[in-house]
Write a structure and sequence with these properties.
The longest helix has 21 residues. It is globular and about 90 Å long. 41% of the residues are buried. By secondary structure, the protein is α/β, with parallel strands linked by helices. The protein has 4 domains: 195 residues, P-loop containing nucleotide triphosphate hydrolases (Rossmann fold); 158 residues, 3-Layer(aba) Sandwich (Rossmann fold); 103 residues, Arc Repressor Mutant, subunit A; 70 residues, DNA polymerase, domain 1 (Orthogonal Bundle), CATH 1.10.150. Strand 3, helix 5 and strand 4 form a beta-alpha-beta unit. It is 46% helix and 12% strand. Strands 3-4-2-5-6-1-7 form a 7-stranded parallel β-sheet, sandwiched between helices. The protein is built from 28 helices and 17 strands. The site of adenosine-5'-diphosphate has 17 residues, from helix 3.
């Protein structure tokens, strides 16, 4: 049997395995079943691709999305691996050819849609072909409670019944224990070894800022930290998607919109552009993202608060799959909290659902308002016994917020809510606290209440932050009618009575909380090296176009950077560079050396 590490180097051009890859590969290569839980970008594909190349016969990979299959096969072709896919995008003739090649042992890997795999015809073909293994990708699709449920996945238990001697490897990035159990049961994986990786994404830097002007904060972030990078900007509504994309374009950002209300053709055209071109910023609703395995997304930005930590983690997880530095950035404000609380309160759902939804929202708010390491909170939320060592790569770690004793301020705010009859929103309450004698205040005669003008020691901005945090901490809640009025809660009494202290975070004056280093990290490069970088990128764009594949399939940014840094002058030196396997060396060696010797 060929050695896994030789294949890693020779075919994929990588020098070391990541995380548990080596253990998984060894286990499958000798015929073991397993379930692999690894975060997005953890490198799941290699876990079955390498055993596929080590073992006799064809590896059959079950994959739920046509686009994913096509990308994987395109990438394998670039590596010179014999592979194909079988799904509804092929004509009868094409599918027939693939089947014939499959029977003739022409492939090392065949990607198949589940409904196709389950046909008697294909099951029959498999019975007549030596099989290396079954890989069941996105195995959480078997879970009826998950949002990616695919009924055909349940029937995949047939594989075990029909082909008991063929090892099976199921893979997913969904971590929770309920889903894990379901996968094991439904796919008949009892007795299979389970590989659980940490779900930490150390290369992603988490950053949450107070939203003031939203859009311009975003622009500032993109320009100062991610100029020219590919990224995704998530917005709550279709309208906001359109507006934000248009505005960014006016400001010189290469942005395009994506949401479910757009015509299908335009939508898929935009998706293609995002995948294939360098440095496109996709402004989208959460309709965008499933099955996007672009590895060089450098940032994911949220202009609105997501619904839960699960959603946040999944969306931000689309950044930095290639392991290079990436940023998860979010701007959130008082309006988000009020809107979401109200949405839950007003939903038709049963009480139990409302309780779950508000618990989830509270966990997210705690993350947003955190004055301790955000990564630690995230990992703990997902049940990982994270160490309490701060990560050093989130905004809180890099620039710890100052916490102040806000008990008196909280008492003033809460009592102002009480004195004005729990009928008013934040803007009005702040007017009363600051003693602003507005017409409205006079009309309600609140210039006569005891809390009028008692908050002059803080300015309006600080009061806004105080109210936001009081809501996030559960001491205030918006009314359910949607008037924007704030109401006291059961817990506010303790604060008003002086039984509970309230600690608040100091607001930062500057809009950028932490200035991050440019992620493409060309900072250390000399002008001449930057020029080389541009030339290599240009070459990559042209080559990708010629081959009809996304640029990153030709080479990742990381490889181009290595090329600039090491400037190899011979084929041998070139073959040492990360990401340069033997097939790519053969195809691109001459042109690359031509450029590098330039
Ligand atoms: P997942 O499916 O777990 O999200 P992928 O299999 O797509 O992740 O891998 C993410 C990226 O990391 C890919 O671009 C892949 O080429 C790269 N990668 C995987 N394993 C390694 C490794 N051992 N060394 C370097 N890069 C790797
Ligand atoms: Zn941290």
């Amino acid at each position: 049997m060929p050695q896994a590490s030789n294949i890693l180097k020779d075919i994929f051009g990588y020098s070391a395995f990541r995380g548990q890859q080596a253990e998984v590969i060894t286990h499958v290569a000798v015929g073991g079943d397993c379930l692999v839980l690894m975060p997005t970008g953890g490198g799941k594909s290699l876990c079955y691709q390498i055993p596929a190349l080590m073992r006799n016969g064809v590896a059959v990979v079950v994959s739920p999305l046509i686009a994913l299959m096509q990308n994987q096969v395109a990438a394998l072709h670039e590596l010179g691996v014999r592979s194909a896919f079988l799904n509804s995008s092929l004509t009868h003739g094409e599918a027939f050819d693939v089947e014939r090649n499959f029977l003739a042992g022409q492939y090392d890997l065949l990607y198949v849609a589940p409904e196709r795999l389950l046909t008697p015809r294909f099951l029959g073909l498999m019975a007549n072909t030596p099989l290396a293994l079954f890989a069941i990708d996105e195995a959480h699709c078997v879970s009826q409670w998950g949002h990616d449920f695919r009924p055909e996945y349940i029937q995949l238990s047939v594989l075990q019944e029909r082909f008991p001697d063929v090892p099976r490897i199921a893979l997913t990035a969904t971590a929770d224990t309920v889903t894990r159990k379901e996968i094991i049961e439904r796919l008949g994986l009892n007795g299979a070894k389970i590989f659980v990786s940490s779900f930490d994404r150390p290369n992603i830097r988490y950053q949450v800022i107070d939203r003031t002007s939203g859009r311009s904060q975003l622009l500032d972030f993109i320009q100062s930290e991610h100029k020219g990078d590919a990224g995704i900007v998530y917005c709550m509504s279709r309208k906001k998607v359109e507006e934000t994309a248009g505005w960014l374009v006016d400001k010189g950002v290469n942005a395009i919109p994506y949401h479910a209300g757009m015509n299908t053709q335009v939508r898929s055209h935009h998706q293609e552009r995002f995948l294939r071109e360098d440095g496109v910023v996709m402004v989208a609703t959460i309709a965008f993202g499933m099955g996007i395995d672009k590895p060089d997304v450098r940032f994911v930005a949220h202009l609105d608060l997501p619904k839960s930590i699960e959603g946040y983690y999944q969306e931000t997880g689309r950044a930095g799959r290639d392991g290079q530095a990436a940023t998860a950035w979010m701007a959130y404000g008082l309006g988000d909290v009020v809107r979401q609380l109200r949405m839950i309160e007003n939903s038709e759902a049963e009480d139990q659902f409302k309780r779950v939804a508000s618990t989830k929202l509270n966990a997210l708010l705690a993350l947003c308002e955190a004055s301790v390491c955000r990564r630690t909170l995230l990992l703990r939320y997902f049940g990982e016994i994270a160490t309490d060592t701060p990560c050093g790569n989130c905004d809180v770690c890099l620039d710890p917020p100052t916490v102040w004793d806000g008990t008196v301020a909280a008492q003033k705010a809460l009592s102002c809510v009480y004195r004005t009859g729990q009928n008013f929103g934040v803007g009005y309450l702040i007017d009363v606290l600051l003693g602003n004698d507005t017409d409205r205040v006079k009309q309600w005669m609140h210039n006569k209440v005891s809390t009028f003008g008692i908050g002059k020691e803080l300015d309006e901005k600080v009061w806004r932050a105080v109210f936001r945090q009081l809501i996030a901490l559960g001491f205030l809640t918006p009314d359910s009618e949607g008037h924007g009025s704030l109401l006291l809660t059961e817990t506010s009494r303790a604060v008003l009575k002086g039984l509970q202290a309230v600690y608040l975070k100091q607001q930062k004056e500057n809009r950028r909380v932490v200035k991050l280093k440019r992620s493409d990290d060309l900072t250390g490069f000399e002008p001449i090296e930057r020029e080389m970088w541009e030339r290599l990128r240009l070459w990559r764009t042209e080559t990708a176009k010629e081959h009809g594949v996304p640029a990153y399939v030709v080479f990742h940014d990381a490889t181009l950077k290595e090329l600039v840094r090491l400037c190899p002058q011979t084929e041998k030196e070139l073959s040492q560079v990360m990401g340069v396997g033997s097939h790519k060396l053969e195809m691109y060696g001459v042109s690359l050396l031509g450029i590098l010797r330039g």
